[in-house]
Amino acid sequence: MVPINSQIIAENVILIDADGNKVGLLPFQDAINSANKAELDLVQVSPKGSEPVVCKLLDYGKHISTMI
Hints:
Blueprint: E1 12-16, E2 22-27, H1 28-37, E3 41-44, E4 53-58, H2 60-67
Parallel strand pairs: 1-4
Antiparallel strand pairs: 1-2, 3-4
């Protein structure tokens, strides 16, 4: 299971928006605020231990249901 929202442990993240565009390096709190504003989840897409952590904005529940 991948870390989402508050499960992500990072001071800064590279944020990818819901359209796949690279937003850039942001403080974690700014990234989670962007997710909340967009009514989406912040999902870690980089492998565990990667620096910096790469996260994408997406509807995680919808994403998981399409994988089943």
